[in-house]
Amino acid sequence: MSTDDWHGQRMPAQLSYATVHACFERLRAARPEPEGELEHTNAYTLVVAVALSAQATDKGVNKATRALFAKVDTPQKMLALGEEQLIEHIRTIGLFRNKAKNVMKLSQILVDEYGGEVPSSRAALSSLPGVGRKTANVVLNMWWRYPAQAVDTHVFRVANRTGIAPGKDVVAVERALEDQIPAAFALHAHHWLILHGRYTCVARKPKCEECVIADLCAFEEKTGGALVEAPVKPEAGVEKPAARKAKPARASKPAREGKPTRETAAKSARTARGPARQRRTATTDADRSEGT
Asked: Taking residues 185-211, what's their average pLDDT?
């Protein structure tokens, strides 16, 4: 059963509490202690790493920040390093120039407004340049162990495909996760979903044959070949438009009463010309006889 359309597919209905509970029991059994894959040394380096990870892979960010975080682990040290040197460290990351500007700005704000410490509220974190709601939730969850649900592309996809927490946008999915996930699983929920989406429930060819929750999942296309961006399918109960029928051959108009059709008139003319021809032929023969 489906509800509203989601990114080109019908969005599954919300799974029941018992099914959601069973899903997370299995995900926990598969990965008892899931961890984020971004390398960091403290709250500040975590903020920087997550801000740099936008539209980039964790692997790529780790490769770029390994040497950086070895010598820069506070906003004061980042400001002392300077923007140009930061750029040299993160040049391999997409949008590195804009990200470098944001890191320098947020570092200055942390020094000026928060005494060099990273604040622990979502509102304060989200106000920092380059730090959105997702980044704030990641920091709250990973550093302060608060059960915030960070919704990235993997979480959004898995939550919608499975029916664990359907939603039309990231905020709707975040709210659904907060509402639907049993408390025992809330702290690690977004990590289980991220890792499941990254390695099993992948975007183009989900590995349903390897999935530990395949029999509980509400995803309608479990062949492994359906694209997330597949064309919209007709909603249940809505008939497909009927195939266009061939137009019937146009019937000839009936002749008006008292007025012959074109074909009838031609035939009459031919018939009328017949006797006249015969008369002309007979007259000519007679003339020839007289003149002989």
From this structure: 96
Q: Which helix (H) or strand (E) holds 276?
A: helix 262-291
DSSP β-bridge partners for residue 5: 10
Give CA–CA dist 2/138, Å, rounded.
30
Question: What DSSP letter does each residue of 39-86 carry, written as one string?
Answer: --SSHHHHHHHHHHTTTS-HHHHHHHHHHHHHH--SHHHHHHH-HHHH
Indicate if 112 belongs to the active site.
Answer: no
Whether the CB-CB separation of 9 and 232 falls below 8 Å is answered with yes
In angstroms, rounded to a whole number, what is the distance separating the alpha carbons of residues 48 and 73? 10
Residue 248, CA distances (Å) to 82, 157, 243, 245 in order: 79, 49, 15, 9
The predicted pLDDT at position 269 comes to 53
- Does residue 265 register a pLDDT over 60? no
User: In whole angstroms, what is the distance from residue 215 CA to residue 194 CA?
Assistant: 20
Question: Which is catalytic among the residues 71, 73, 134, 222?
Answer: 134
Beta bridge partners, 2, equal 12
Structural contact between residues 133 and 126, judged by C-beta atoms closer than 8 angstroms: yes
Whose CA is closest to 143, among 63, 247, 50? 50
pLDDT for res 274: 53
Is 134 a known active-site residue? yes
Catalytic: which of 4, 71, 101, 152?
152
Q: Check residues 232 and 186 and name the one with the higher pLDDT.
A: 186
The CA distance from 224 to 201, in Å, is: 9
User: How far is Cα 269 from Cα 14, in angstroms, rounded to an integer?
Assistant: 82
Amino acid, single-letter form, for residue 56: A
Rounded Cα gap, residues 213 and 220, in angstroms: 14
pLDDT of residue 11: 72
Does residue 166 have a pLDDT over 70? yes
Whether 101 shows a pLDDT value over 50: the answer reads yes
